[in-house]
Amino acid sequence: MHEHLRDQLPAVSLAALVQLLPGMDPEADAGEDSETTPPARPGDALHRLLIDNAPDLVCVMDRGGRFRFLNEAARRLLGYETDALLGRPYAEFVDAEDLEIARNLFDEDRKGPGDARRAELRLRRHPKVAGPRPQQSTAMWADLTVTRLRTAGGAFAGAFVVARDISADKENRQAADFQAYHDILTHLPNRALLEDRLEVALEQAGRKRGPTLVFLDLDRFKVVNDRFGHAMGDRLLQAVAKRLQENLQRGDTLSRFGGDEFAVLLPNVHTRRQATAATGRLLEGLRAPLVLDGNELDIAASAGIALYPQAGNTARAMIQNADMAMYHAKGTGGDGFEFFEGGMNLKFSSRLAAERDLRGALAAGEIEVYYQPRVDLDTGAISGVEALARWRHPERGLVDAN
């Protein structure tokens, strides 16, 4: 029995409660309806009042699974009048996908200790009690506790059921689960979900046939943000997500990795030719001008492609190498793609080392300023100067700007 109902009832046996309910006699012969009601006893009216006013749905079913009693909460939660429910089998009001769960709860011959079982399932509601969201019109998530009733001789006589409406809790849990693995702005899978699916694809990969990973980064996205504001930037990201989705194939996963960066997992693409065609479709789908609030925006992206196993055989390696290839594509002018090649590691490492050394040079005061005059060629007069930064390396001397 649910805690809410248990807290409201004085100490009383389940058999005593059932005897309060009209037309239900656990001692009656199976399959026959009892037409007698036991004489009232002190406290019976209180117990019946508490059951009728309990917030949870309370019902009693005979051994055939037909409703013999329902409290007021049944009408309020399910939307059907009590008379329309009495005598009808419970299966008519259980969601088709959860019927197997319900049958296990009510199975007369089920094995296992105890006569009480608990499960979560969906009950079918009348459309008139529809909630604000479409799925609420047909289903109510319920936490059911089902207790089998027995005769004095131990024979199965029916079931006593308490059902609590947990629809709101269920939706909150589902929303939390969705947010944990999806991007809130675009509703696309996030990095965590993409990595999980990539790892699964790699586990299923053969020696030579595995997934392909494509990284895309929008070109000039910062210009849109700076000129039109972040709200326009967000709308652009949503439009880009929609366009990319339109060019996916069955089984592909599109993910927003963060900022203006997207990743596409292609589990059925195994060759450079296939990857070229798939990435070309994605980039071509972005090139058509997009109009937002009367502003025509030209969209383009740079893409990096990581093929298995050349670009790695782990999720971490493929992500890192697809990202590296994407930055190489962006460095060649954008609006195109590059495949990851082994030599990119050396170039990328050299660039990282140079950036690291430059940060150290700034801290050590090794950056010097030189002034170069600007001369008017017609008059020969100096018209100004340019300030140039030069790095005086302690071992390599004055480093050329190139």
Explain this structure.
The chain is an alpha+beta fold and 402 residues long. It is built from 13 helices and 15 strands. The chain has helices spanning 3-8, 14-19, 44-52, 72-78, 82-85, 99-106, 167-181, 191-203, 221-228, 230-245, 272-287, 315-331, 343-364; strands spanning 57-62, 67-70, 116-124, 139-150, 156-165, 212-218, 253-258, 261-266, 290-292, 295-297, 301-307, 336-339, 367-375, 382-393, 397-399. β11, α12 (315-331) and β12 form a beta-alpha-beta unit. α9 packs antiparallel against α10. It starts with a helix and ends with a strand.
Summarize the structure.
By secondary structure, the chain is of the alpha+beta class. The chain is built from 13 helices and 15 strands.
What keyword list fits this structure?
402 residues, alpha+beta, 5-stranded antiparallel β-sheet, 5-stranded mixed β-sheet, elongated
Cα gyration radius (Å):
35 Å
- Which H/E pattern describes the elements? HHHEEHHHEEEHHEHHEEHEEEHEHEEE
Unreliable spans are: 6-13, 29-38
The helicity comes to 25-40%
Number of strands: 15
Mean pLDDT: 83
Give the biggest sheet.
5 strands, antiparallel
Indicate the overall shape. Answer: elongated
Strand content: 25-35%
**What's the end-to-end separation, in Å?**
79 Å
Number of helical stretches of at least 4 residues: 13
Structural class: alpha+beta
Strand order of the largest sheet: 2-1-5-4-3
